[in-house]
Amino acid sequence: MSNMNSEIRALEPKAVWNKFADLNAVPRPSKKEERVIAFMKDFGESLGLVTEIDKVGNVLIKKPATSGLEDCKTVVMQSHLDMVHQKNADTDFDFDAQGIEMYVDGDWVRAKGTTLGADNGLGVATIMAILESKEIAHPAIEALFTIDEETGMTGAKGLEGEWLTGDILLNLDTEEDDEIGVGCAGGIDVTARRSYAEEEVAQGKTAYTIAITGLNGGHSGMDIDKGLGNANKIMNRLLFDGFENFGLQISQIKGGSLRNAIPRESFATVVVDTIQAEAFEFEAKELIIGIKAELSVIDPDLTIEIKSTELPNTVMELGVQEGILKALYAAHNGVYRMSAAFPGLVEASNNIAKVTIENGEVIIECLTRSSVESSKHDLANKLRATFELTGCDVTASGDYPGWAPNMSSQILEVLDGLYQKLNGEKAHVAACHAGLECGILGQNYPEMDMISFGPTILGAHSPDERASISSTQKYWKFVLEILQHIPKK
Questions:
Q1: Which residues neighbour 429 within 8 Å (Cβ) at sequence distance 6 or greater?
Q2: Distance, CA of 408 to CA of 412 (rounded, Å)
Q3: What positions carry a catalytic annotation?
């Protein structure tokens, strides 16, 4: 581990990569940020800077302006402390106890079989590097490190309205280095539940496990328009066909993991009449060939395995099973509406993220996103209606607003001009189909001028997550330039 980290620590800009390596040694799953909060508190206090923690766990570190920039507006530099914990099924790793194991692969920094935490660790590391530096010129800074961005934005939601005094917010959580973010989608968690009677498995049955693995997965916002395979939808096609034609019965399903990740894997245990077993296997194989062909371009490593297994003790009652299979087929997954205001931007979408059927309970978890509040609730209602038709109890939670673009923003003008000066071309000014904290922060700070940018990170929320080294260098120069060109008070 140490030799891998020394490889990372040698990268330029050293200030950023060293802070990233320090941060990645601290386990920091969403909802369990105690260690990283303590780490940031120690960091701020060790520099002799005013360091505060609010009641939800957000950390604020204040640094006065450097000489000559005292009359500029105060800047809030903001990133989130938590990271998505995803690993490959065959990777032995304890996120609660281990630091991320990083390595260099050409122009990319990657992690061994897990998410890297560049989302949003590189943003956190950038701010830490600026707080620690004695050379970097900057206006007065309020460094805001929020918690739990990935699973509910509770840090941003819990932020008090009087805590920050800054006029400009730089959110460092965008993942393409040629993009300046001016808007984002809001989200809402839709969860369907129902109970079912468990029936004993009758005589003359054959049991199978069905395993769907090898899908790319990805970010349920940024990647939702790429046509990626959804393991829960694929599994449902196999089960629906098996039920319709061979009376297949479900014993158990475990599909997907996190709401904000497109599901890569699903596992089921099912039962069919032994007399039908051969025909079921033959038809399933035919169906699998078709599904693999459909996804061959985008998900070439998709693997679907059907294997005989020991008979389970119980299966779902057929009435509930039929309803759930039909509801999952009907439930919307993927893009719901493209934006009319921003060509190429997904306005509204849904990710059927997690399907769990076991021990007499069905739980289906979705993340519905939209940059327009009314279409977000329209899609949430569509899902609710779909699942309520089959007797599910549907709840909506974790609702957070989008961030509406302000094209006449003063800080946008600054970044737009500086990007062009540094790179000889115009930046891509865009709204994104992901949840940034700006929409929520804007509720308590409606006058704050907000912008989002960052280095190029690919595969966020999946074990394929990787951060570009050359892009991080480009972005660091941009950050330093921005801090010297903040408008006067």
A1: 179, 180, 182, 407, 412, 416
A2: 8
A3: 82, 149
